[in-house]
UniProtKB/TrEMBL annotation:
The lineage of its organism: Bacteria, Bacillati, Bacillota, Bacilli, Lactobacillales. It comes from the Bacteria. PANTHER family: DIPHOSPHOMEVALONATE DECARBOXYLASE. Keywords: ATP-binding, Lipid biosynthesis, Lipid metabolism, Lyase, Nucleotide-binding. Residues 179-313 form the Mvd1 C-terminal domain. GO terms for cellular component: cytosol. Gene3D superfamilies: 3.30.230.10, GHMP kinase, C-terminal domain (3.30.70.890). Its EC number is 4.1.1.33. It is an enzyme of class 4 (lyase). The keyword Hydrolase does not apply. This is diphosphomevalonate decarboxylase.
Length: 332
């Protein structure tokens, strides 16, 4: 017997950052966060429950993965199998249209797509809130990729897993866009997970980060409700820089930046000074994301091309939430 589920999920870029867990096993964050889902980057995943399999098998971009990576997937699938009261093993085929481990939120789209496909394959038909809660336990930021547009992830209460989930805030269809400046799409040397823990354990700035992030999220939600792009951008840029400041305060100091990261930040500020509103944010990686108006994207791209190559400039519109794929839509 076989049962198949297929799902597409897009990445999201946090405007109010998630950096640090209070419960590492359940991926419960130290603060709430808010993101923008992007259509340019996504993951397609197929889950086939197959009674003839003796163990789970995981292929990423047609490459069979080893025991360590497969074990992570098995643990995640067990969240669904336990609910469905089944032990059937699965063949998972995932295709990442995002550079892996480059600070471009590949794990967000990966585990969100895996959650959607597994939900379909098991026949559980869980609602989006529950899927968001489960996706979080694969990758924290995956909880937000369940939805499109602007999305808020609640930090939740204490160690109550069911209290920490994401909800859609706004569809972001009011002239919102983002440009990724791909400084380096290679795998980063220090994982986000390790960087978070080191920052929490050693940075004297961390407690202030959590306190101000809580204030930032209320301010940015107000800006979104009022469609105030300037305030939205200013808060986004400030929050991202504060997160990286906490890393610089860690022992030993952590920096994901490269020389071209600084070059990109300076270029964006130069463009802004010309009268085009655009703001930077960065995650745990060297790549720079530019929040801008969709109607300004071509002009901003042309100015970025003065310093960066065409393949380094990746424009994106707002992405949608998870989508189940039919056999005809599965083009692999």
């Amino acid at each position: 017997m076989k049962s198949i589920g297929r799902c597409r999920a897009h990445t999201n870029i946090a405007l109010i950052k998630y950096w640090g867990k209070r419960n590492e096993e359940l991926f419960l964050p130290m603060n709430s966060s808010l993101s923008l889902t992007l259509d340019a980057f996504y993951t397609d995943t197929e889950v086939t429950l197959d009674s003839t399999l003796d163990s789970d098998v995981f292929f990423l971009d047609n490459v069979k993965q080893g025991d360590k990576e497969t074990a992570k997937i098995t643990n995640f699938l067990n969240l669904f199998r336990n609910r469905a009261n089944i032990e059937t093993k699965a063949c998972i085929k995932s295709y990442n249209h995002v550079p892996t481990a480059a600070g471009l939120a590949s794990s967000a789209s990966a585990f969100s797509a895996l959650a959607g496909a597994t939900n379909q394959a098991t026949g559980l038909n869980l609602d989006l809130k529950t899927l968001s809660t489960l996706a979080r336990q694969g990758s924290g930021s995956a909880t937000r990729s369940i939805y499109g547009g602007f999305v808020e992830w609640f930090m939740g209460e204490s160690d109550l897993s069911e209290s920490s989930f994401a909800i859609p805030v706004d569809d972001a269809t009011w002239d919102i866009g983002m440009i990724v400046i791909a400084v380096n799409t290679g795998r980063k040397k220090l994982s986000s997970r390790v960087g978070m823990k080191q920052t929490i354990d050693t940075s004297p700035f961390y407690s202030s980060w959590v306190e101000t992030a809580t204030k930032d999220i209320e301010k940015i939600k107000k800006a979104i409700s009022e469609k105030d792009f300037i305030t939205l951008g200013e808060i986004t840029e400030s929050n991202g820089m504060k997160m990286h400041a906490t890393m610089l305060g860690a022992f030993p100091p952590i920096s994901y930046w490269e020389p071209d990261s600084v070059k990109a930040i300076q270029k964006v500020k130069e463009i802004r000074d010309m009268g085009l509103p655009c703001y930077v944010t960065m995650d745990a990686g060297p790549n720079v994301k530019v929040l801008c108006k969709r109607s300004d994207m071509i002009e901003i791209e042309n100015k970025l091309l003065e310093d960066f190559t065409r393949d380094q400039i990746i424009p994106s519109s707002v992405g949608e939430g998870i989508k189940l794929l039919s056999q005809d839509e599965w083009n692999y």
